[in-house]
Each structure stands twice: as structure tokens, then as C-alpha cells.
Known about the structure:
Blueprint: E1 4-7, E2 10-13, E3 18-19, E4 23-26, E5 29-32, E6 35-36, E7 40-43, E8 46-49, E9 52-53, E10 57-66, E11 69-70, E12 74-83, E13 88-89, E14 93-96, E15 113-115, H1 126-167, H2 169-172, E16 178-179, E17 182-183
Parallel strand pairs: 1-4, 2-5, 3-6, 4-7, 5-8, 6-9, 7-10, 8-10, 9-11, 10-12, 11-13, 12-14, 14-15
Antiparallel strand pairs: 16-17
Amino acid sequence: MGDLVVTGGTVTVDRDVLISGDLLVISGEVLIDGNVNGDIKSTSGTLTLNGDAHRSIDCRGGKLIINGQVSGDATLACNQIEIGSKASFEKAVRYWNDKGSAEFHGSVKNGTAIFDPSLEIESGRWHYLGFASLLMIWYMGTALLFIVLVNYLFGRTFRNAANNIKNSSLKSLGLVRCRKNNCT
């Protein structure tokens, strides 16, 4: 299999499967028991790596569980990071999680695991949504007030215009029909 792109849902890569290219994961839950020869880039809900990643891994998301081998550099920025007893990192690891630390159990072979605050996952600012809602209510209220005011001031004029269009629509459009010196 070449490159694999996963967007949502639940995907399992079995032990016998070899992804010869890159693996790109966007949302969902992914379980990798097989091997990935290319890079792994993930922004998933949950990524579980039990197989081998022969190049780098860049994982950002909700939860990451690693029980396999990562041969390249690793960038891990997840709310929860679980490093299993069978995990192995051949190069340096940069990581961020909610706790501010992760237990690598000596799994980093030729480098170090460094907590990097610049990888922090920024959550949405929900209080802006409340302010935007307030602005929307203000806008809708102003529009309603404007409609009521225009209807109050020009209601009779609008009714007369509507009756003229309804009763003599051709005349109101400027089209006049003439028959033997009689134009209507």
C-alpha cells in the first residue's frame, strides 16, 4: 500500500499491513499494528502505534498511545501521552501534554525527551462566542427596530404602491398599451 490518508472514523492497520508511503490522519481513531515506511502526521482524536514507524512522527491531538518503534524524530503534542513498555524512540523526542511531563521509561535510545511548551495545543476561546452572540442579537434588534420604524412612517405609501403594482402592473413598469388613440 502507498500513502494512506484517513479523515474521520475508526481505522485499524493490521499487523501484516505495510504502508510504504506516508500516513496522514485527520480526526477519528487510528490503531496501527503494522509498519509505516514514510512519515506519520496525525491530528487525530486517538492514535495508537503498536507497529513500527520507520521515519518521523508528528502527532497532535487528544490521546496518543505508543507501544511500537519510532526510527525518526518524534514531535508529540497531545492532551494525553501514554508510552508503553515496548515503546522505542531511536532519535530525539519533543513533546507537550496536559500534565507537563511524560514517563518514557528509558525508551529514548539516541537522544532525549524534551518537554516543549511551544507545542501546546491552543483550545478555542469560547468567551468570544458569547460576545459574538451578543453582537448578533444587537444587530437583529436594530434591524427589527428599523423595519418597524419604516413601516410606521411609510406604511400607507407602501400599501398604495403594492395596490398599484397589483392592479396595474404594466403601467407601473412604464408599459402602456394604445388602441386607436386610447391609451391605457
